[in-house]
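Why run this: before we spend reagent on co-expression, it is cheaper to look at a predicted model of the complex and decide which construct boundaries make sense. The entries below are exactly what would go into the expression plan.
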Amino acid sequence: MISALAIRRWCWVHKWTSLVCTLFLLMLCLTGLPLIFHEEIEHATSTLEQPEELPAGTPWTSFDRILDTAMAHRPGEVAHLVFSDPHHPHELYVGMGTTPEASMEDDTGVIVDARTTRIHGTKKFGEGGIMDWVLKLHVDMFAGLPGKLFLGVMAALFLLAIVSGVVLYAPFMRERSYGVVRRERGARLRWLDLHNLLGISVAAWVLVVGATGMINTWADLLLKLWQVKELGAMTAAYQGQPYRPPTASLESAIATARVSEPAMKFSFVAFPGTAFSSPHHYTIFMRGDRPLTARLLKPILIDAQTGAFTDSRDMPWYVTALLLSQPLHFGDYGGMPLKIIWALFDVIAIVVLVSGVYLWWKRRKVPVEIDLRQSEPATEFAAVKEGSIA
Amino acid sequence: MSAPASRFRKLWLVPLALAALTAAGLTSALVGDGAWDALSWLALAAPVFAAGSLFARR
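The model came back. C-alpha cells follow.
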C-alpha cells in the first residue's frame, strides 16, 4: 500500500509535469488530428496531375532519363534525392536544390512518372497549403532544431505525467471499481473520476505515441550521428577528396545496389554532398517488403564517379529505433480504420488534458486528502475551513 | 479470495486488460496486413469503446 507521503509526492510530480507541458500537448494533439489524415487531405487538395492508366507491368524507364527530365525542368539546380513512395508506385519524387549541401527542406520536388518521364507537377514546402504549416507547428513550432528538442523535453514531461497519473489511479479510485463515475456529487468529483478513468483507459496508447514522438524529435541528431560515425567509417578512404559533381550513371548505380540486396526494394537515393550521403557517393537506401521491414532501410554506397560498389552496412540500432518509432507515432500502418482509431484516441487524450487543467483550477483550494478520503460533503467543508494545504 | 486481492482485481483488471489489448493492437498491424490489420482494429477499439462508454452512462 502506497504511503500518504508518497501519494503527496506523486501528486506534486503529476501536477507540475502536467502543468508545464499541457499547453504544448494540447497544441500537439490538435495539430496531430488533421495530420493523421494528411495523405487523404493532400490527395484531395493536390494540384498534381494523376498518373496515366497504363497496362499493369509497364516497366520503368531508366533512372538516368528520369534524372535528366527533372534537371531540365529546374535548370541551374542540383538533384538531392530521388524517392519512390510505396503509396504512389508509378511516381518518383526528385528533390532539387540550389547547391549540394542546401537544406532538403527548401527543395523543389519534381514529380516524374517513372514509366513515361512525364512531369506531374512540383511540390515545395509552404506551397502545399495549410497542412504544411500544421506539420511545421507540430514538428518544431517554426523554430528548427531547438524547437524540436524543446518539444522533446515537453514529451519527456508528458511521459512523467502519464506514469505519475497511473501511480495515482489506485489511491484516487479507492474502493470503486473501474467504470464507476460519481455523478451526483458535483462537477469536480465527476470530472476527477472521468479524468482518472479516461486516462487509465488510454494510458498505454498515449505512452507509446508520446515516447515515439519524443524519439522523433531526435531525428536530426540521430541522422547527424549516423553520418559522422557510420558514413564516416564507410568512406574513410575518400577523406580529404574534394566534392565533384556525380558523373556515374544513376541507373547502373541502382542496379548495382539491387544486385547487392536482391531481396530488398528501392526506397530512395541520396546524392553526393547531402545530409544522407557522403560528398563522393550515391547512397542508395533499400527497404524490406514486409509490413514490419518496409520502413527499415539499408544504405548502399556507390562511388559517384566510377559507379563502383564502396560499402554497405546495416543501420545502427538508434536509426532502426527511429525508423520503427515513426509508424507507431503516425498511426499510418493499418489502413483507414486504424487512422480513425488514432483520431478517437487523440480526442480522448484532449479530454484528459483539458479535464486535468480544469481539476487543477478547481482544486487550488481543495487539499489532496479530501479526494483520497472519499469524504462526505460535510468533512470536505470542514477541511477546507481548517485551511489544509492544497 | 483475500480482500486485497479482490480490491486489486476491482481496480486493475480492466485497465490491465485494456493496456494488453492496446499493446497487441499496436503490434499486430506492424506484423502483417489483412487479418493482422483487422485484429489490430478490434484490439484497439476496446480502450476507445471503454472510454466512450464512460460518457454514455451519464
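The two ends of chain A are 23 Å apart (CA to CA). Strands of chain A lie at 78-84, 91-97, 108-113, 119-124, 265-270, 281-287, 297-303, 309-312. Bring this page to Monday's planning discussion.
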